Amino acid sequence: PDEQAHRQAVARHAQLTKPAGSLGRLEELGVWISACQGTCPPRPFARPRVVLFAGDHGVAAEGVSAYPSEVTEQMVTNFLTGGAAVNVAATNADATVRVVDIAVATDTPSLIAAHKVRRSSGAINREDALSEAETTAAIAAGRAIADEEIDGGADLLIAGDMGIGNTTVSAVLIAALTDTEPVAVVGRGTGIDDAGWMRKAAVIRDALRRARPVAGDPLALLRVAGGADIAAVSGFLAQAAARRTPVLLDGLAVGAAALIAEELAPNARKWWLAGHRSAEPAHALVLDQLDLTPLLDLGMRLGEGAGALAALPLLTLSCRVLAEMATFEEAGVTGPTSD
Amino acid sequence: PDEQAHRQAVARHAQLTKPAGSLGRLEELGVWISACQGTCPPRPFARPRVVLFAGDHGVAAEGVSAYPSEVTEQMVTNFLTGGAAVNVAATNADATVRVVDIAVATDTPSLIAAHKVRRSSGAINREDALSEAETTAAIAAGRAIADEEIDGGADLLIAGDMGIGNTTVSAVLIAALTDTEPVAVVGRGTGIDDAGWMRKAAVIRDALRRARPVAGDPLALLRVAGGADIAAVSGFLAQAAARRTPVLLDGLAVGAAALIAEELAPNARKWWLAGHRSAEPAHALVLDQLDLTPLLDLGMRLGEGAGALAALPLLTLSCRVLAEMATFEEAGVTGPTSD
Question: What is the ipTM of this complex?
């Protein structure tokens, strides 16, 4: 982000008809967007865009989710026909949604399968998620998708992830990258019961045993204990930063990918904002590690991008405040008295 | 709020294509709006309306604010010409703003002065804010304004307050009603320095000495240590509840009025939602006492209604989720497996 635009935005905030700092985090947001765009006041986002990465995970067969793997494909159809939470949240925030099949277990319409890497990723508690070539291909797919979107005019990107089993894989990656014990990262995901929680904890423990030795190498980690969808999201997030395009992060799976992306492209996080804090326990580890303070904390845990979209109107508002509020001089309002 | 619509909304959430409870607080919001409207799914708000109550306070002369009293009138003009934060936030959330002069120290356009009670309210550290008749008139004005707005089609109300000195008065009312020591309620308001903070603390201490004996009688409390604007807001909030119209609360001054309104009309708070947590320390006491959990916590402290408006898109989203998402059956998505 641009330091001169940052300074201009801070200075403009001091001239607007409100007590200095009285809009709190909204002021910081507007300053950050100004810096990302390199201009003050910031432009309203012309094309905020959600890319929803879909992929299945072999671990789903271990009973780690309240839903069967078929739901991934069914939800992809639901996204395409506009019936999912992410669609409603996008409409509400004037954003649009693109679905990409990175590793759904079944065939999907060719419309969304151009970047498909494989059918499902491996069951990481007992085998590698991906081959080396697939890992590279998935990251490249995410980078290519970011390029496509930015070249198409997207000026704010949001990644979502859909795939039964994805919180299990995400928890493993996050535990490996933050050196955390398994039990601290096991969440209820889609809403598993106690027996499911114990199965999930066992899978995470086993997968972490495989993951820890390669935790220092992000590509090896994605290959051994990741998944193609998450690898693609990490490429997407890294490329967005390389292209100087701001990103609003969503929940757990995107958070796991963000930790990887920050390894692939150090300081990529300067281009990211945390839309919300997920109810999944491992998400707090992500936010801490990336030093990001979420805008919302509403107990959401969907992962499709709906949490980020719920926060998007705050970004829009923060831009408009800088662009549309009157200054003390314009409004003829007396400034603060010096004491 | 209506229990049958509440139950219908809870049941509908369980049928929508998302893991049960995965939208967290957004689900509760949609249920609450359904219950307020007595229908499920809830209707999108047709006319969300901000009423901004303006009034000066005698304590401003004691140097408790970073701004002189003239700023109240100047900001009223700024609201009318659309240059203030509340105007931008309203536009961003598809709401409209009405300004009413309840007790501005100077004359304002007749357009907004129909409900004016007096010029400024008394300096509560040494005199009563209002006479008994003025107190009654101010509450009645707030009730009448709520009626006007609801009769005019408003289906979601937001109150804001403008008046230099209002955080001092609000802190006194809140301390009196929650039996809190002065030092715990003194905030920086518009951004006073340490010397100003000490002056403000002394004024609050003196006013509280006058307020405590009448803390059990809301009308007497408003008369002795309140202000016409805050009295009007309390009438407005009580009447909104009587008219079964949901309200999104803003910051400190509205919070002080809400404590009074809950005394005037017990359980009025069932019709209220806390838009945000203000950075003012006394606001947390309000939220605790009313048992309201704020939607946003962004360090805002403006009081014009901008904090409530920042949260409004979340309400809109929560309505749309219930109205627009596909059910498992409609989308052909497999529901959760029973274990």
Answer: 0.96
